[in-house]
Amino acid sequence: MSLETRPRGATRQATVQTPKNASTTPLRWMVSGLPRRSTDLPIVTRAARIDAQPVGKFSCHAVRMPRRTPIVTASAMRYRRSVAPRVKETDVRRDRSASIAALLLLAASLMTPAGGATTTTVAAAPKTGAWERIDPKPLRIGGRLYEPTCSQAEGADPTFAFWYRPGTADGLVVYFDGGGACWDDATCARPRLARNVQDRRTVYKAELLPGDEVSRMQGIFAVTDARNPVRDWSMLFVPYCTGDVHSGSNTAQYRDPQTGKPYTIQHRGWDNTQVILHWMRRNVPQPKRLLVTGSSAGAYGAATHYAALRTMYPRGSAVFLGDAGQGVTTPDFFSRRNTSWNYRLPESVFGRGAQLTADDDMVARLAAHFPRDRFAQYTTAYDGIQRAFYGMMGAEKSCDAWTVKMAEQLERREAATNFRAYLARGETHTILRSPLFYTETTGGAPFADWFGALLAEQPPTSEACKDCLAPPASCAAM
């Protein structure tokens, strides 16, 4: 996938060559005559962006590029020239509520709606079971007591539940929902509750909300829409209400920066998932096809728990898809994440000291550990929510800086033959719960078709929007 194939103003055209004994793999284009990259990694490049023709729709040659500039945009180059070779990070100050509010008010206007609009039903879907709400009880696992709970922020309902729907096909979708995150005094003081759900200054979902009613959701949850590739699969929906991207196991103490009042947050996303996994072992049969996915904060949760789910369901094919959770974070956040949440990652994949794994390294490490499985990510070029949170983490010039790092990280991940990406135009946030799932085409192919191919025997190529990386007007405020 190419975001920009040559420096602005360059007139030299790249050429496609087929060397002797070149291996054939999905995704890769053979490119020569481009400036050398410092890392000298294989790059996935859209043929339309370099005036070249693919060898085949899903079968193209892969070689190391002798000369190549990093995949960055013109705006990214301007950013690097005006700021520094790397993104500068600043400390996240305790009292920064005003700046957080400004970022969230801007980002909230860019969110993709989870419902509201309706989709056109082409044909009736096969009859399947209804959604069932599961209210788990405290459970002792391996000598430890797990008590399912939401954040227990002030005024929040602590009740935690999840949903399951049996299907008629041989596939299983495990979906982790999103809803922001909090990690310090200022961010955790802004919970989203049922009573203030319209308040755009909130930072994280602190309790189960009316919008968590999965039967009303669109996208992959529109089970009566024949365009939905997983409409007849079994589905398990993991809601989110702990502020820790489904990965925490800690009771954290904070102090409100406005009032000075101390408060406690239960970051128990990892603990809640252990109870869900225990329930699944006894109630969800072995599928032949497994999709582990999630949106926003849920994309990180899907990565955290992928190994446990794959161990539980080792037979058949498996796919990971992260929706709008690219892992672009700052060093300051990385440190606070571990302290505030007691971030839990499986040592079976990430080794001893798994907690030290950076957010931008998780998917690549999973892809290397499970080489027969497929891994993929979706994002827009200037995702408003992701770049707002990047600003809250202390990044300077977070709008351009987020896009620069996102592009560089996608480029590195595409060195793996079992990784794919879909980069769409714009600033919207998430796609799997939205009607946009059926209408998004700016990446170069209809997203729903690309998603379906990701689950099929023959994988799709990576897709990227063309000429979509000029900074939007909203970047002026960030």
Written description of the protein model:
The relative contact order is 0.16. With 478 residues, the chain is an alpha/beta fold. A nine-stranded mixed beta sheet has the order 3-6-10-7-13-14-15-16-17, with helices on both faces. Strands 1-2 form a two-stranded antiparallel sheet. A two-stranded antiparallel ribbon has the order 4-5. Helix 5 links the parallel strand 13 and strand 14 (317-323). The protein is built from eleven helices and 17 strands. The protein starts with 23 loop residues before the first strand and ends in a 14-residue tail after the last strand. Helix 2 (97-108) packs antiparallel against helix 9 (384-392) and helix 9 (384-392) crosses helix 10 (398-413). Helix content is 24%, strand content 15%.
Summed up:
With 478 residues, this protein is of the alpha/beta class. It has helices at 74-82, 97-108, 185-188, 269-283, 297-312, 331-341, 347-350, 362-369, 384-392, 398-413, 447-455, and strands at 24-25, 60-61, 132-134, 139-141, 144-146, 162-165, 171-176, 191-192, 204-205, 234-238, 250-255, 262-267, 289-295, 317-323, 374-380, 419-424, 463-464.
Helical region count?
Answer: 11
How big a fraction of the residues is strand?
15-25%
Mean pLDDT: 80
Identify low-pLDDT runs: 1-95, 108-127
> What order do the strands of the largest sheet run in, or round the barrel if closed?
3-6-10-7-13-14-15-16-17
N-C termini distance: 27 Å
User: How would you characterize the largest beta sheet?
Assistant: 9 strands, mixed
Query: What order do the helices and strands follow?
Result: EEHHEEEEEHEEEEEHEHEHHHEHHEHE
DSSP strand count: 17
- Overall helicity: 10-25%
Class per helix and strand makeup: alpha/beta
Shape assignment: globular
> What radius of gyration results from the CA coordinates?
22 Å
